[in-house]
Amino acid sequence: MYLTLNRRNGKFGGILVLPFATGVTHSFILLAISTVVMVAILYASKKGKVPKIRKIAAIDAIDEAVGRATEMGRPVHYTPGIGDFYGYDAPMTIAGISVLGYAARKVAEYNTPLIVTFAAPEVEPVIADVVRQAYLAAGRPEAFNPDSIRFISTRQFAYASGVVGILHREKVAANFMIGYFAGESIIVAEAGFLGGAIQVGGTANTYQIPFFVVACDHVLISEELYAAGAYLSRDPVQLAAIAGQDWVRLIAAAFIVAGALLATFGMSWIADFFKI
Predict the structure, then answer these.
(1) Distance CA 92, CA 7 (A)
(2) Stretch 102-115: mean pLDDT
(3) How far apart are CA 271 and CA 250, in angstroms?
(4) Residue 41 located in a structural domain
């Protein structure tokens, strides 16, 4: 941004100019294209052309895990991890809580004990309300037990120790770890494995996904976590948002492939476009 001043008849007049900074014009153009694509898909979805989403085995396994816990007469444990509602981990926490709503409803329908643990105190009201609404939707509001919503600790490994104790003392039969996890992931997942629980893990933290793959029976890998809410709700708007993001990725990939091919033959107009 800059301001030009002109003096006329002893007075100053200014013109405010807002040019694009060098190297970001292409970002604005790509943003405009992405916005048009997203809006078009959302509009089509509202008109009845709802995008399809592939099967996600880890989400489908929730019903199986809750059913097994019910048959064994043992509780289900769910945790959205150590994330909160601010910072880069917030989307993973929110995605984990969205899946919690579905799992809690299944638990309520089967009349199976549920334990929910977390490490950030500010998520407690949201988690409690989600679980309460799930029991209400299942027609069993009287079965909701506020004591099953348990804040453990804000300290990472104190939280892990508390969850490990719960898994062993309560003899948990199904362990869902879906949200934001860090170094405590393998500790909790290994404890669940040793306790014989069927486990579903999911996170977008790429450093922890290998631990879930090793220790859990089913895993939501990276962006499958963010698609889980749309997959479970089948809400047309959410499904359209997922499809729109996929189309934007395809457009970006097309630019990369086209740029590489053209550069191979000495044509650099796509590379030049990304410099403006």
Answers:
(1) 56
(2) 92
(3) 18
(4) no
Q: What is the mean pLDDT of residues 233-252?
A: 78
pLDDT of res. 3? 41
What φ, ψ does residue 269 adopt, rounded to 5°? -70, -30
Buried b (16+ CB within 10 A) or exposed e, 161-174: bbbbebbeeeebbb
Beta bridge partners of 78: 116, 176
> What is the rounded CA–CA span in Å between residue 68 and residue 60?
14
Q: Which residue has the tokens 């892990």?
A: 160
Residue 78 forms part of a structural domain: yes
- 174 within domain boundaries: yes
Residues facing 202 on adjacent strands: 178, 220
Report CA-CA distances (Å) from 48 to 41, 45, 71, 76, 149.
11, 5, 40, 37, 39
CATH number reported for the structural domain that contains residue 63 in this entry: 3.40.50
43 located within any domain: no
Number of domains in the chain: 1
Residue 51: closest CA among 37, 32, 35? 37
Per-residue confidence band for 13, with pLDDT thresholds at 50, 70 and 90: very low
Rounded to two decimals, the pTM is: 0.78
Burial 43-69 (b: 16+ CB within 10 A, else e): eebeeeebbeeeebebbebbeebbebb
Q: How confident is the model at residue 135 (pLDDT cuts 50, 70, 90)?
A: very high
In this structure, which long-range contacts are made by residues 48-52, counting pairs with CB atoms below 8 Å and at least 24 apart in sequence? 50/236, 50/239, 50/240, 51/239, 51/240, 51/242, 51/243, 52/239
Note down the domain range covering 214: 57-233
- Note the pLDDT tens digit of each residue in 73-88: 999 999 999 988 888 8
User: Look-up: residue for tokens 């170094």?
Assistant: 183
Whole-number Å distance between alpha carbons of 140 and 132? 10
